[in-house]
Amino acid sequence: MKAILTVSMVFLIFAGPRADILRTFYFSAVDGKGNHVTDLTAADLTVKEGGKDREISSVRPATAPMQISLLVDDAGTGAFQPSVAQFLQTLVGRAQFSIRVLTPQPIMVAMLTNDVVALRSAIGRMGPRGRIQVDGDQIISGVTDAARELRQLRAARPAIVALSASGETVSSDIADEALNMLRSSGASLSVLYITGIELGKVLGDGPRQSGGMMQRANGTASVGPALEKITENLMNQYVLTYTVPDGVKLNDKISLSTSRKGVTLIAPSRLADK
To answer: What is the pLDDT averaged over residues 235-246?
Structure first.
């Protein structure tokens, strides 16, 4: 009997404690007037993964530096240049930036930097460039490239911001690849689009799945205020961590809700299932 007890004790020692998994994502909250709500706590929130309640470990304001990938699809007009310059100026102390300009293919003009000289040079390449033939698959490819880059860099707080005056090919067969890459990168996708363009799976569904924001501009004059709302949203995020019990298979479908009346959450509905 003594020998049996000894073997059991050794097994328990090697088995060790339960290995719960912690999963983290970013979200924001606005009230009925569109103002950001900055005092939410875990008691105000409920997280479900695959329809099952999960215990929230922590909720706090997000302060980590961001890694932002910008996609500028202006059809060669240069119309987004002043607004992008303001966006970078506001966030330069809080983020690093990669910038791609569609010509129509996505061309990298800055690679993950917060260097002011490099960013100023990138802005200079966004001016009027003459009429560019629109190709609706290119913005989708741009999202794929940006998400792949952020995944390879293992970016801690990744975000993609796409500004589009051309839109996407609605029935594109590369849209699913872009959404899968977006999910695996952990990046949010925020989209600013000009009224009247086509939105498909990526620009239309990507923000909802990834926890990004959509903003419509009725013309070039309203691009600045629309992009400012995306800027404010990124600056007022929370970071939430929840627990998945040991032995439970991860699910990529999540939902975040709040008991606060009149508060709308901007949060992902899909996470990488690993």
So the answer is: 95
What count of other Cβ atoms lies within 10 Å of the Cβ of residue 177?
A: 17
77: containing domain: 66-235
Three-state secondary-structure class, residue 13: helix
Stated pTM of the model: 0.90
Greater confidence, 105 or 118?
A: 118
Same domain for 153 and 41: no
CB neighbour class for 63 (10 Å; exposed up to 12, middle 13-18, buried from 19): exposed
β-bridge pairing 188-194 and 214-217? parallel
Q: Looking at the structure, tell me whether residues 139 and 210 fall in a common domain.
A: yes
**Residue that the structure tokens 């909720």 belong to:** 59
pLDDT digits (tens, 9 = 90+) for 136-165: 899 999 999 999 999 999 999 999 999 999
